[in-house]
Amino acid sequence: METLAALTTKIVKWIDYNPFIVVALIASALLVGCDVSTFLAGKTVSPFTGESVTAAQLQAEYDAEIEKQVATQAEATLAITQAEAAFEAAIAAATLEAEAADAAIARATDRAEAAIEEANAKTERNAGLIEGLLTFTGSAVPGLGPLIPLLLAGGLGVDNIRRAGVIRKLKRGTPE
C-alpha cells in the first residue's frame, strides 16, 4: 500500500502532464452540475421587477403579468355586466313609475274634463233660466229692458267665478 504522500505525488504529476484534460474535467463537472443555459444566456432588466433576468425568466414574468391582467379584465367585465343589469332594472322601474304617473294623469284629466262639462252644462242651464226670467220680467215690468243684458252679464260672470273654483278644487284633488 502506498503512502498518502506517494499517492499525492502521482496525482500531481499526472495533472502536470495533462493540464488541459484536468481543466476540461473541472469545466465539465461545473457545467453538468449547473444549468449551462444559465451561464450562456444573456440577461436583461425586467420591466416588471427591475431585476436582471434571462429570457426564460422574463417570459415567466410576462406570462404571470398576462394572467393577472386577464383576471383583472374578467373582474371588470363582470362589474360592467352587473352594472348594466342594475341600470336596466332601474330603467324598468322608472318606466313603470312613469306609466303609473301617466295613468294617474289620464284619470285626473278625465275627471276634470267631466267636471268642466258638467259645470258648462249647469252654466248654460242657469243662463237659460236667467234669460227666460229676465225676458219674462222685462216684458212684465216696463223700464227693466235695459237692465236685462247687465243682469245677464253679471250672472254669467258669477257663474264663471264659481266654475273656476270647481276646477281649482278638482286640480287639487278635493271634491266640491
Q: Sum up the overall morphology in one term.
A: rod-shaped
- Tally the beta strands: 2
Indicate the proportion of strand residues: under 5%
Quaternary assembly: single chain
The biggest beta sheet reads: 2 strands, antiparallel
Helix and strand content put the structural class at mainly alpha
- Rg to the nearest angstrom? 54 Å
Low-confidence stretches: none
- Number of H/I helices: 5
Explain this structure:
The protein has a two-stranded antiparallel ribbon. With 176 residues, the protein is mainly alpha-helical. The protein has 2 domains: 8-40, no CATH class; 41-172. 1% of the residues are buried. The chain has 5 helices and 2 strands; from the N terminus they run αααββαα. It is 83% helix and 3% strand. The model has no long low-confidence stretch (mean pLDDT 80).
Which features would summarize this protein structure in a list?
two-stranded antiparallel sheet; 2 domains; single chain; 176 residues
Helices, strands, pairings?
Elements: H1 4-17, H2 19-33, H3 36-40, E1 43-45, E2 52-54, H4 55-140, H5 147-172
Antiparallel strand pairs: 1-2
Helix pairs in contact: 4-5
Summarize the structure.
The chain has 176 residues and is mainly α. It has helices at residues 4-17, 19-33, 36-40, 55-140, 147-172, and strands at residues 43-45, 52-54. The longest helix is centred in the middle third of the chain and has 86 residues, at 55-140.
